[in-house]
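Methods — Computational structure assignment.
A single polypeptide chain was analysed. Its primary sequence is given first, followed by the predicted tertiary structure written as structure tokens.
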Amino acid sequence: MLRSIIVSLILSVWLYALPQAINEEIRKSGIAKKDISIYIKEAGKNGKVVASLNEYKTRTPASVIKVLTTYAAALKLGFDYRWPTQFYKDGTVKNGLLQGDLVIKGFGDPTLNDKDLETIVTNIRAKGIDEIKGDIVIDRSYFKVGDKDSSGFDEYPYSAYNAMPDAMMFNERVVTVCVNPKENKVHKKNVDESYKVVNQLEHVNKPCKGKYSWPGVSIDKSEVVPIVLLKGKISKRCGNRNICKVVTKPYKSFYYALKDKLEKEGIKVRGTLKLGKIPQNATMLFTHYSETLEEIISETSKESNNLYARHLLLLLGAKVYGAPATLQKGRDAIVQILKSKGALGEGKLRIDNGSGLSRTSKMNAKLLGYMYDDAYDRYGVRWMETLSIAGVDGTIKRRFRNTVVKKRAWMKTGTLRRVKNIGGYVKNRAGKFYTVVILINSTKAKYRGAKLQDKIIQWLVKTTAKPTVKSPSKIIQKKKPASQNIFSKVKTTVPLKTKGVTKTPTQKYYVQAGSFSKMPNGEYLVKIEALGLRYSVRHADNYKVLIGAYKDEKEARKALEKVREHINAGAFIVKL
């Protein structure tokens, strides 16, 4: 009995011992082993462990925890999900006059920005509205998150990464003040009366460097209308400077920017901003959609966007447990989704806000590695490419640009004071893929931690072990968007009518330009023809206008750009 226990212990030490190369790099780093967690294995749940150290020890994850949020979103909603923002009229339209309010319900689209206003205003005009007699009413009730502008996580509360979520988000809650030192001009990038700018800059004829290279900025929120104060000396030789700060409420910024755009397009607004829920008798005008979830989670991971991660967590909370979304619902939803899909490993997990901008978030290296393995098996390259690609983009673009790791690692990083973490996938020279998690929580983490991680990843890339299992799948069937109906949900049984396609195409990619309760009118279809695009109208529960087919997604995306510019900004690609 004793002999078997001893053999078992020796075997377990041998199986999970660190390779000598990693042990040596740890020794050189000067970081105590107790402060390091390493979990490296062949990618996929059936892969063998290569190196393991403190893999079950609970650590502060920082932003690497974002991948739990983004992966849960992909599992629950599908890569092609699009965030809606709904527009209603509360009243009647006669001779171009809306006798009532324009009502807007936000569902937390974190990407909504000033570039979307042109499409929104075009859609409002398309509904025959030339003047709004009532107010612009904004419904923010989908999120229940309080009214804080900043998380106040550190000494930079007005920095963009500290922005707090809101169901009616706009420009990521950031306002931009543009400074032109050469012409001694200062202006707001967008019309926004919810804050003021006071310019006390002194322009000097000095070289544009040091203290003369950037405006001094302070924020005063003691008044009802916050003030952005520009002060200090700045060189006249400097180029344009954009001051981007979290200052005001996003729904207020959206209101002023929308009203300005409406009036520039000749649509007068007589009323003002009001907050409230959608009236029962209100009629939907249209729905504005975000880009796909795939693009949003890529931005979240590659650029480590805290606000996007917060919004994803809240959206999942509402989808799983019902609106209004709350932090606790979001936390529970992520755990529930990952558990139900068999993607959650063992150990303590505290998600907090989903972004990792937290000292209370906790997890271990093996739990994170388990999730990475599940994503590798389920989605392959499609998932991997939502992460930052070494030497190419995101947070490891520069870090590995001139190394052997370039284009051979797909990672998510996480950094806080005394925290330096990284996790994802690495491909060695022979084409073998590994799941890699290295968590370092130490006073020496900032510089020595990053260097240690780099050395380990470089060593792994240089190994020559050949693949024993198949590489990650490159072609994944995209989930067809569910209920992304752009115009109406009324069912009808009118027979199918088609034009331009006489038989079922063999190609698989289409652009869905619209979905209607009735056969679309001739004017709409003529606009498609004028763009030189081939289309068909297919009928099941409703009428879907499909443009295509195309041999590959690249060709379909070219058509998608035309359709979004000239027909419908909410168009998207489907694969049939």
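Note: Residues 4-15, 475-505 have pLDDT under 50 and may be disordered.
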